[in-house]
Structures are given as structure tokens and as C-alpha cells.
Design brief:
Elements: H1 2-9, H2 18-29, H3 39-46, H4 50-60, H5 65-75, H6 87-95, H7 98-118, H8 121-132, E1 135-140, H9 145-155, E2 162-164, H10 173-176, E3 183-188, H11 197-206, E4 210-216, H12 222-225, E5 228-232, H13 244-261, H14 263-279
Parallel strand pairs: 1-2, 1-3, 3-4, 4-5
Helix pairs in contact: 3-4, 7-13, 8-13, 9-13
């Protein structure tokens, strides 16, 4: 469905005036972020009136931005763990190299989009939050849980008081008990969305915990429940969703934190290395 809308935005009939071109180009470049936009926010970014944006959307065939969002969600309803194509054809494609070449190109395209994310205000706000929080709690579920645990482990080498929370105690009390101010919840959730993710974010903010959510373009509620929402490209390929893009984003985030903290990271790594030597976890 996103491809149909992108093709529609290229129609010359929708690009007749200067404002038409501004809106069409903006929607085309930021289609992944539309779930978090309103007609008013788009108009403000482009220095146009909301009525101008509304008229453009009606010419596209949509009765406002909400209908366009619903159309995008409906076209992206495949679950994360579903092979999205006829198996026989996929076998032919992989034997000819076409399938893997397409997947590699998709990853390259996604990595290209990451640059825009790293230069956004939300990225800088996230780095400042990770560096300045009194405690950082990382949470994720299902097939992205392992990636989030990796991030929490790596982040703990750069700064103290980092913890992965699994919610097995049934309360998330270590995060929500209010005993320490300045806490941060770094929540990672992508389609198919976990039932606990949204209520955890809501309760965290209610408890005065800042919430950073890293999610994909299929999430319709991210901006509503978080202080900072980072949206990464989702998978549109014929196979189930992979982790290459999100892992790259998290590695870049760790690198950015290391640069900001500077010598503090080196000192911490030296202390941890000494402890590792004492307890013998690694070969010499």
C-alpha cells in the first residue's frame, strides 16, 4: 500500500503548484513518520495552512490525514514472522540470486534512511537522555528482546546503573516505585506489538519516568505514550522482518554515547576489565 501511495505522489496532477510540490515531496520523504503527524504539524513544517494540506489530501482521494494513515496501516498488516510470498517463487528467486540481492538492497536503503534519523532533534534528545539519566531501564519483548538485552549490556560498559527489565516480577517495581528521580525507560517494540509495551510506557510516564520509544513505521501509538519517539524503517521484503537495521541504529547510538562521555567511558572500561580479570570470565 505504501508503494501505491508513493506512486500516487509522483503524479504530475498532484504537483501543479509550488505548495503541491512541497506537500508531495514532504509526504514522499517522510511516509514512515506519517503515523506521528497531523495536518497541522505538516502545515507548520512547510509554512502552509492546514486547509492547504487538507485540500491536497482530498485530491489524493483521502478525507484527511487519518484516512491516509489507516490506508497505510491496512497495507502493512503482515505480521513480523510471516513469509510474504509464494514459497515456490521464492525458491526460484533465491536460486537465481534475485531474492538475496533484493534483501541486500533493502538493507542498504534502510541504512541510508538511518542518516536522517541520526541528524534529527529526537536523536540528540535520546543521546542526552541516555547520558544524563540517573538510571536507565531497557525493556523489549518477543523477537526483539535479545537485541535490547545486547544494547543494555553494551550501554552498561559506557555508564553505570543500566538494567534490562523483563517484567517477570509482575509489577516492574524496580522502575516504577518512584524511589529515584531522573529515571529513563528505553523501550523497544516493533510489529507485532507486545501487549505490555504500551501500558508500561503509560505507567512509566505517570510515575515521572522519561520514556524513549524506538519503534518502526507500523506503530500507530508511539508518539502518544513516549517523550521521545524514534522511528526506524520497517521490513517490506518477502521474508519475515530482520534485525539488521535496528541493530545498526543501536550500535550508532552506543558510539554517539561513547563520544559524548569521552574519558569517562575509558575509565569505566578499565574498572570493568580489572573486575573481569579478578573473576576470570575471559581467557588471558
Amino acid at each position: 500500500m505504501a508503494q501505491r501511495i508513493l506512486k500516487l505522489l509522483q503524479d504530475e496532477a498532484l504537483r501543479r503548484s509550488k505548495s503541491d510540490k512541497l506537500i508531495a515531496n514532504y509526504l514522499e520523504r517522510n511516509i514512515a513518520d506519517l503515523p506521528f503527524e497531523t495536518a497541522k504539524s505538516i502545515a507548520e513544517r512547510l509554512e502552509l495552512s492546514p486547509m492547504t494540506v487538507g485540500r491536497f489530501l482530498r485530491r489524493m482521494g483521502f478525507d484527511g490525514l487519518d484516512q491516509l494513515k489507516r490506508e497505510l496501516r491496512r497495507g502493512s498488516s503482515n505480521p513480523a514472522w510471516q513469509v510474504k510470498g509464494p514459497v515456490d517463487r521464492l525458491r526460484e528467486d533465491i536460486r537465481g540470486g534475485k531474492l538475496l540481492a533484493g534483501l541486500i538492497q533493502q538493507q542498504i536503503d534502510n541504512l541510508g534512511q538511518i542518516y536522517g534519523l541520526t541528524t534529527s532533534p529526537e536523536w540528540q534528545q535520546t543521546i542526552e537522555a541516555l547520558v544524563g539519566a540517573s538510571e536507565v531501564y531497557v525493556a523489549a519483548y518477543q523477537n526483539v528482546r535479545g537485541i535490547a538485552q545486547y544494547f543494555a549490556s553494551q550501554l552498561s560498559y559506557t555508564r553505570p546503573r543500566v538494567q534490562f527489565v523483563d517484567g517477570l516480577n509482575g509489577t516492574y517495581a524496580e522502575l516504577l516505585d518512584g524511589s529515584v528521580s531522573g529515571r529513563l525507560l528505553f523501550l523497544h517494540d516493533v510489529r507485532r506489538f507486545a501487549s505490555k509495551a504500551r501500558p508500561l510506557a503509560v505507567e512509566a510516564r505517570r510515575a515521572g519516568v522519561k520514556v524513549v520509544l524506538i519503534t518502526d513505521e507500523f506503530c500507530p501509538w508511539g508518539a502518544e505514550v513516549s517523550d521521545i519517539c524514534l522511528v526506524v524503517p520497517g521490513s517490506h521484503g518477502p521474508l519475515w522482518d530482520g534485525a539488521a537495521t535496528i541493530t545498526a541504529v543501536l550500535d550508532l547510538m552506543l558510539s554517539n554515547v561513547i563520544v559524548v562521555l569521552g574519558d569517562e567511558v575509558s575509565e569505566r572500561v578499565e574498572r570493568l576489565t580489572r573486575l573481569q580479570d579478578i573473576f576470570g570470565d575471559f581467557e588471558t
